[in-house]
């Protein structure tokens, strides 16, 4: 059988890269705050919003990227060995193609894949204790479901996406728009409510027959009564405890956040147990994408790291983490240090990370004498994607057993003091002031600190020092 012939125009559109590009995603929104927010137009976004485009080396030299017009090689192939671009606009007012480099996200993806970490469902990691949450793959049949999946009929099945919106994350305008849609679909909703009422009556009749010890074959078909149905609706309106689960089941809404303690004593619409695949989604909302976000498709971390000389290892090769922000004296999340691992900013540098060894240089305070910033060796243990599309990476400081096969050693503890001593050498003999709360150092005076050769010189020097201090 021969395939149907396409017209030249249809064949051109079918093979065109312009029509193959997906629609751009919305950029992430920052939470509303009254504080001053400093943003950068060139900062890397938490997730890519446009597709990355690559082309063979032979085509990139001539500027052929399969787009409307050629891309200048001076901005692509001559700047990078493997150029990757993203197109912001195919044709602007100036009749040019607006593009930029997409190396930020493609290199981050390559670095993350070198960690050999499976994606897990979000779970809070408590670093103040030795308990770490277990790995749960988002590809399991009981959690990898949407509102149209067939596996929802399985017992205890969960889903990461539902047909209804997450009401807690909507604005007032979005909520009013959704209410108009619900009012417009009122006939279909009432019909689903009638079906739910008939199923409820059937369950009650079945339970009554079982309690009496009678045969289930004596069950009679349920006859729908409009008066009883309206009485059932009135009873739901009078009881928020019973109306809440019915509304969430009828409209297929994700579970809301937990009720605050101040509202527990009052009346509120109760929500049923969450159907979301992870409990963290009940607080932050369902994920915008699949819980894996396409970063990794391995289901478990059951990998064997085989060293060419020492054989199988229990830990993979440690990776170097760069300290982006040291710890602070603030309370709460503001005191946590931030480290970059594989291009991903992680806040998993906490007390349990360094409970058995000394703190790495540059972690407790900013040390300007460290060339390139403070670093330490870390072992990633868990990776997940939050509901807003950010990568949540958990790591621990690499142990001695994990570093020994690769000959990795941390900097000696005396290096920090030696670096400070080298910086302070010079004519001024003054330690640079890095923190306003640090004690001030008076300038060294060579005349007041002459070498002591006798007891009289020592006594004279002591008297001059006391006089200077007073």
UniProtKB/TrEMBL annotation:
**Highest taxon, organism lineage:** Eukaryota
Stretches for region Disordered: 22-79
Q: What PANTHER family does the database record attribute to this sequence?
A: 37S RIBOSOMAL PROTEIN MRP51, MITOCHONDRIAL, SMALL RIBOSOMAL SUBUNIT PROTEIN BS1M
**Family matches, as InterPro entries:** Rbsml_bS1m-like (IPR016712)
Q: Which GO terms describe its molecular function?
A: structural constituent of ribosome
Q: What is this protein called?
A: Mitochondrial ribosomal protein MRP51
Recall the taxonomic lineage recorded for the source organism: Eukaryota, Fungi, Dikarya, Ascomycota, Pezizomycotina
Pfam families assigned to the protein according to its UniProt record, in alphabetical order:
Mit_ribos_Mrp51 (PF11709)
């Amino acid at each position: 059988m021969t395939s149907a012939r396409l017209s030249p125009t249809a064949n051109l559109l079918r093979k065109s890269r312009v029509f193959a590009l997906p629609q751009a995603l919305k950029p992430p929104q920052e939470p509303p705050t009254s504080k001053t927010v400093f943003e950068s137009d060139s900062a890397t976004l938490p997730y890519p919003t446009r597709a990355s485009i690559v082309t063979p080396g032979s085509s990139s030299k001539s500027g052929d990227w399969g787009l409307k017009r050629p891309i200048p090689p001076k901005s692509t192939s001559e700047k990078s060995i493997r150029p990757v671009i993203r197109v912001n606009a195919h044709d602007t007012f100036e009749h040019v193609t607006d593009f930029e480099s997409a190396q930020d996200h493609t290199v981050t993806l390559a670095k993350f894949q070198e960690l050999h970490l499976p994606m897990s469902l979000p779970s809070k990691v408590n670093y103040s204790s030795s308990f770490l949450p277990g790995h749960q793959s988002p590809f399991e049949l009981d959690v990898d479901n949407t509102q149209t999946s067939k596996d929802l009929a399985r017992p205890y099945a969960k889903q990461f996406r539902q047909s209804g919106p997450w009401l807690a994350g909507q604005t007032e305008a979005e909520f009013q728009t959704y209410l108009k849609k619900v009012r417009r679909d009122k006939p279909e909703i009432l019909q689903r409510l009638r079906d739910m009422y008939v199923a409820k009556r059937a369950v009650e009749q079945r339970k009554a027959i079982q309690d009496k010890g009678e045969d289930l074959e004596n069950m009679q078909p349920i006859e729908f009564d409009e008066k009883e149905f309206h009485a059932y609706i009135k009873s739901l309106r009078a009881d928020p405890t019973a109306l809440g689960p019915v509304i969430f089941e009828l409209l297929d809404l994700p579970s809301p956040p937990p009720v605050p303690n101040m509202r527990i004593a009052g009346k509120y619409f109760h929500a049923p147990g969450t159907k979301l695949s992870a409990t963290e989604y009940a607080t932050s909302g369902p994920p915008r994408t699949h819980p894996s976000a396409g970063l990794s498709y391995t289901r478990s971390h059951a990998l064997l790291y085989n060293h060419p000389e020492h054989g199988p290892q229990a830990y993979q090769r440690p990776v170097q983490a760069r300290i982006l922000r040291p710890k602070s004296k603030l309370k709460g999340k503001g005191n946590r240090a931030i480290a970059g691992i594989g291009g991903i900013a992680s806040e998993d540098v906490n007390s349990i990370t360094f409970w058995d060894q000394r703190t790495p240089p540059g972690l407790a305070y900013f040390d300007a004498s460290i060339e390139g910033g403070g670093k330490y060796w870390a072992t990633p243990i868990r990776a997940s994607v939050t509901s807003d599309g950010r990568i949540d990476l958990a790591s621990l400081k690499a142990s001695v057993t994990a570093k020994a096969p690769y000959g990795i050693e941390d900097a000696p503890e005396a290096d920090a003091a030696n670096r400070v001593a080298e910086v302070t050498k010079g004519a001024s003999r003054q330690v640079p002031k890095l923190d306003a709360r640090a004690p001030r150092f008076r300038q060294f005076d060579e005349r007041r600190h002459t070498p002591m050769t006798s007891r009289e010189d020592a006594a004279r020097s002591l008297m001059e020092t006391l006089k200077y201090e007073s």
